[in-house]
C-alpha cells in the first residue's frame, strides 16, 4: 500500500531525526538495558548469597549442637570470608565466640568478638564489644576493655555499654567514675527493663543514690 503524503512527510521527519539523534538514542537504550540487566543480576546475586549463607549458618548451628568447636570455627571462618557483608556473618561470629568460650578457647572467642565488633552492623558491634570487654575484664585487662567500649554506640545499647564500663571501673577501684557510668546506664535504661534493677543494686553498692520515685498525683 502506498503511503499518503502526510505519512511520507512523517517518515521523512523521523528519518531526519534519526540521522541526527539515532546514534545517541541507541546508546541510551543500550545503557538502560545494561542497567536493568545489572539490577536484576545484582538481585539474583544477593538472593544466592543469602541462601548460601543461610545454609552455612545451619551447618554452624548443627556443629554447636554437637559441641564441635573446631567445626564451628571453620564454619564461622568460611562465613566471614565468603559472606562477610551479610548479617549471618555477624551472627556466626557471636555464636562461634560463645562456643569457643564454653570450650575454654578464649583466644578464639576474643577473635570472633573482635571480628563482629569490626565488621558487624550497629547492633552486632555493640553486643560484641560488651562481651569482649567482659572477657578482658575477667583477664584484668582493664584499660584494653575500656578501649573496646570507647566510640559511638547505637542509642538502644548505650545503657548496656555504660553498665559494663561501670563494672570495669569498679574493678579498678575508680568508684567516682564507676558511679557516673552506672548513673549513665540507669538514665539510658528503660524503667521496665528487668536488667535495670541489677544496675541499680551495683550503683547503690558503691555509694550511689537513686532518687525515690514520686507518687503519682
TrEMBL record:
**Entry keyword annotation includes Protein biosynthesis:** no
Arranged from A to Z, the UniProt key words for this protein are: Cell membrane, Chaperone, Membrane, Transmembrane, Transmembrane helix
Q: How does it sit in the membrane?
A: Single-pass membrane protein
Q: Where are the transmembrane segments?
A: 24-45
* Subcellular localization, as worded in the UniProt entry: Cell membrane; Membrane
InterPro entries from the UniProt entry: SecYEG/CpoB_TPR, YfgM
Limits of the Ancillary SecYEG translocon subunit/Cell division coordinator CpoB TPR domain: 15-207
User: Which molecular-function annotations from GO does this UniProt entry contain?
Assistant: protein-containing complex binding
Domain of life the protein comes from: Bacteria
The answer to whether the entry has keyword Transcription regulation is no
Gene Ontology cellular component annotations, sorted alphabetically: plasma membrane
PANTHER family (alphabetical): ANCILLARY SECYEG TRANSLOCON SUBUNIT, UPF0070 PROTEIN YFGM
> Under what name is this protein listed?
Tetratricopeptide repeat protein
Amino acid at each position: 500500500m502506498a503511503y499518503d503524503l502526510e505519512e511520507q512527510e512523517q517518515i521523512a521527519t523521523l528519518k531526519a531525526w534519526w540521522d541526527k539523534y539515532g546514534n545517541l538514542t541507541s546508546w541510551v537504550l543500550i545503557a538502560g538495558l545494561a542497567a536493568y540487566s545489572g539490577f536484576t543480576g545484582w538481585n539474583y546475586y544477593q538472593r544466592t548469597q543469602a541462601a548460601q549463607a543461610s545454609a552455612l549458618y545451619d551447618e554452624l548451628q548443627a556443629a554447636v549442637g554437637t559441641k564441635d568447636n573446631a567445626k564451628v570455627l571453620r564454619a564461622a571462618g568460611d562465613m566471614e570470608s565468603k559472606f562477610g557483608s551479610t548479617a549471618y556473618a555477624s551472627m556466626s561470629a557471636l555464636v562461634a565466640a560463645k562456643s569457643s568460650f564454653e570450650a575454654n578457647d578464649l583466644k578464639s572467642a576474643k577473635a570472633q568478638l573482635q571480628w563482629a565488633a569490626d565488621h558487624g552492623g550497629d547492633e552486632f558491634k555493640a553486643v560484641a564489644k560488651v562481651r569482649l570487654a567482659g572477657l578482658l575484664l575477667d583477664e584484668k585487662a582493664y584499660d584494653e576493655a575500656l578501649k573496646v567500649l570507647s566510640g559511638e554506640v547505637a542509642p538502644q545499647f548505650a545503657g548496656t555499654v555504660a553498665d559494663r564500663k561501670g563494672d570495669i571501673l569498679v574493678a579498678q577501684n575508680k568508684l567516682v567514675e564507676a558511679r557516673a557510668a552506672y548513673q549513665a546506664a540507669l538514665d539510658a535504661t528503660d524503667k521496665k527493663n528487668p536488667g535495670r534493677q541489677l544496675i541499680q543494686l551495683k550503683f547503690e553498692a558503691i555509694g550511689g543514690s537513686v532518687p525515690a520515685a514520686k507518687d503519682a498525683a
